[in-house]
Design a protein that fits this description.
The chain is built from ten helices and six strands; from the N terminus they run βαβααβαβαααβαβαα. By secondary structure, the chain is of the alpha/beta class. Strands 2-1-3-4-5-6 form a six-stranded parallel beta sheet, with helices on both faces. Strand 1 (4-8), helix 1 and strand 2 (31-33) form a beta-alpha-beta unit. 36% of the residues are buried.
Length: 208
């Protein structure tokens, strides 16, 4: 039976962003699943990290899966590993945050407000809904749970993703089973810009 990898997308993305990664030959022997983090079910009553995590746990069922997440997807993956450790076989977290700096959140919020909706939002999400998601994450603090994560973990960050490098490094240091990787020449969305390289990192993580 093939092992399952669950890929979790970022804030302004949809599951289709993973197409170039999941179709890579390096991952052909795995079952790749790309759930949506912004479903009508989650957005109708107001998106929250815990609600999204609970829904994902329900979708996974009783199997143990490998979680791969970028940015918001990495936060959801990390929260799932803390709250539902029995469902997680391993973690690959790219540009994660456990307690986002206030300044970073303010800058992201400002950019979200200034840029056109079609630029910052996936098709099924409005700017108002996305801003509400960001607001729900303003008090995020997963630092207490990091030492409890005990599965093989790779924390990665693009060398050009300066906004998230420090956080990724601190998260890797706080997780006992984690190793930290800086990806040369990569920006924040390197899964979309360098999908073959991202797939190779996933494959290497799974066989390490």
């Amino acid at each position: 039976m093939a092992q399952t990898i669950v890929f979790l997308h970022g804030l302004g993305e949809s599951p289709t962003v993973w197409g170039g990664v999941t179709s890579a030959p390096e991952l052909a022997s795995y079952e790749c699943v790309t759930p949506a983090l912004f479903t009508p079910e989650l957005l109708t009553d107001g998106w929250s990290l815990d609600t999204a995590t609970d829904l994902l746990a329900t979708q996974i069922g009783e199997q143990r899966v490998h979680l791969v997440g970028l940015s918001l997807g990495a936060v959801v993956a990390l929260n799932l590993a803390i709250c539902y450790p029995h469902l997680v076989a391993s973690l690959l977290l790219s540009a994660p945050q456990a307690k986002p700096p206030v300044l970073l959140m303010r800058v992201q919020n400002l950019l979200m407000r200034l840029l056109p909706e079609k630029v910052v939002c996936p098709p099924e999400v409005t700017k108002k809904q996305l801003l509400a998601v960001m607001e729900s994450l303003s008090s995020l603090d997963l630092t207490h749970g990091l030492p409890t994560v005990n599965v093989p973990t790779t924390v990665a960050c693009g060398a050009k993703d300066r906004a998230n490098l420090n956080a990724a490094q601190h998260i890797a240091a706080a997780i006992p089973t984690a190793r930290f990787e800086i990806v040369p020449s990569a920006k924040h969305q390197w899964h979309a810009q360098m999908p073959q390289q991202f797939a190779r990192h996933v494959a290497r993580h799974l066989t390490a």
